Automatic annotation (TrEMBL):
PANTHER family, A to Z: HISTIDINE BIOSYNTHESIS TRIFUNCTIONAL PROTEIN, HISTIDINOL DEHYDROGENASE HDH
Gene name of the encoded protein: hisD
Pathway connected to this protein: Amino-acid biosynthesis; L-histidine biosynthesis; L-histidine from 5-phospho-alpha-D-ribose 1-diphosphate: step 9/9
Binding site for Zn(2+): Q250, H253, D352, H411
Protein name as it appears in the record: Histidinol dehydrogenase
Residues where NAD(+) binds: Y125, Q182, N205
Upper lineage: Bacteria, Bacillati, Bacillota, Bacilli, Lactobacillales
Native source organism of the sequence: Paucilactobacillus nenjiangensis
């Protein structure tokens, strides 16, 4: 891995130069045509695009309960056990996020409050091929169930038995064998077969990401997912073999994944760089991971931990490991990160699979302003107000004053129509 000892100012400048990759106008045009065609022609368009892009002719998009049950029964028992342990841990974590609203009656004659309402229906996009991760099914679906979503609809182009089993374990209501931009369009607008949803979750390729951007406003979306990232903060006490392994755990995801180590120890930097090369040579996904390490990854050496944290907060990584003595003592210095892993035994893959906190996290620096997926993403909030006649009389003059300051005479008259004569 490249090792840099540039000044903090120069490294911060390099971080700020990062810009989001612009979507290819040709892709935008193609996706727009797909969305408009699905909106106009429904199932027929979805069927045509599925044959064109996936090479599959489907009479019925919906996957039967029998096929789902068979997948659950047929998966390896160890896989089933692991999925169920993960489910229980995800539930135990996310149930603490459940909101119940509130009622405020502190002022005489006034009741104010907030009602928490689950979204009626949510769509979950699950990629096919090598990106079909059953763990992501659990991470998407379980918070939705805890929020009280009435209908969880999953679309996936080529479901494995493990993905179908995970959907059953997580409580997904309906599964449709669909993928690509046409699946996003079907969820956003509805077809004769696929129900329209209120919000769409899940990652996908550039066509899926572009489709999610284009239907936003018609439906809500979770985020536009970028390549995976891991940032590790460590000092001389860290174990190079462990640090290298954790960096590669993310590098193997994607050629564009960003593995980053920031340290105050030049010795550790050199040892980790050497260890990464050794481990790459025996990694099954060496080609992908090597390109990630060489093109996207780096090791930064800075003189003190204050600068180390300043740089990492600017990077705002999806995953952040703190490999320092007494790591919890540094948690207050973390301002921007999707999920934080404290100490040498909290390796990032724990968060991917069984620890319980969500692994669907903000990427590409968006941890500066966004959060991991949680129960709160599957709800909406409605406010309510009630006033007695006496309470209105007490505050009416303030309403009419402000209404007339803003030039809204009708607002003022609506209040005065209720005043006692």
């Amino acid at each position: 891995m490249k090792i840099t000892t540039d000044s903090l100012e120069k490294q911060l400048a390099n971080v700020q130069k990062r810009t989001a990759q612009l979507t290819d106008p040709k892709i935008e045009a193609a996706v727009r045509e797909i969305i408009e065609t699905v909106q106009a022609k429904g199932d027929a368009a979805v069927r045509d695009y599925t044959k064109k892009f996936d090479g599959v002719e489907l009479a019925d998009f919906k996957i039967s309960e029998e096929r789902i049950d068979a997948a659950y029964e047929n998966i390896d028992p160890k896989t089933k056990e692991a999925l169920e342990v993960a489910r229980d841990n995800i539930i135990s974590f996310h149930k603490k996020e459940v909101e119940y609203g509130f009622v405020d009656t502190e002022k005489a004659g006034v009741m104010r409050g907030q009602k928490v309402i689950p979204l009626a229906s949510v769509g979950l996009y699950v990629p096919g091929g090598t990106a079909a991760y059953p763990s992501s099914v659990l991470m998407n679906a379980i918070p939705g169930k805890l929020a009280g979503v009435k209908r969880l609809v999953m679309v996936t182009p080529d479901p494995t038995e493990a993905v179908l089993a995970a959907a059953k374990i997580a409580g997904v209501d309906d599964i449709y064998q669909l993928g690509g931009a046409q699946a996003i369009a079907a969820l956003a607008y509805g077809t004769e077969t696929v129900p329209r949803v209120d919000k769409i979750f899940g990652p996908g390729n550039v066509y899926v990401a572009t489709a999610k951007k284009m239907v936003f406003g018609q439906v809500a979306i979770d985020m536009i997912a970028g390549p995976s990232e891991i940032g590790i903060i460590a000092d001389y006490s860290a174990k190079p073999k462990q640090i290298a392994a954790d960096l590669l755990s993310q590098a193997e995801h994607d050629r564009l994944a960003r593995p980053i180590l920031v340290t105050n120890s030049m010795k550790l930097a050199g040892s980790v760089s050497n260890e990464v090369e050794l481990q790459l040579q025996t990694l099954p996904r060496e080609e992908i991971a090597r390109e990630s390490v060489e093109e996207q990854g780096f090791i930064s050496v800075l003189p003190d931990l204050d600068q180390v944290f300043e740089l990492m907060n600017a990077i705002a990584p999806e995953h952040l490991e703190i490999q320092l003595p007494n790591p919890t003592g540094y948690l207050s210095l973390v301002e921007n990160a999707g999920s934080v892993f404290l100490g040498q035994y909290a390796s990032e893959p724990l968060g991917d699979y069984v620890a319980g906190p969500n692994h669907i996290l903000p990427t590409s620096g968006t941890a500066r302003f966004s959060s991991p997926v949680g129960v709160y993403d599957f709800i909406k909030r409605t406010q309510f107000i009630q006033y007695s006649a006496a309470a209105l009389e007490k505050e009416a003059q303030y309403v009419t004053t402000l209404a007339r300051v803003e030039g809204l005479e009708g607002h003022a008259r609506a209040i005065e129509a209720r005043e006692a004569k």
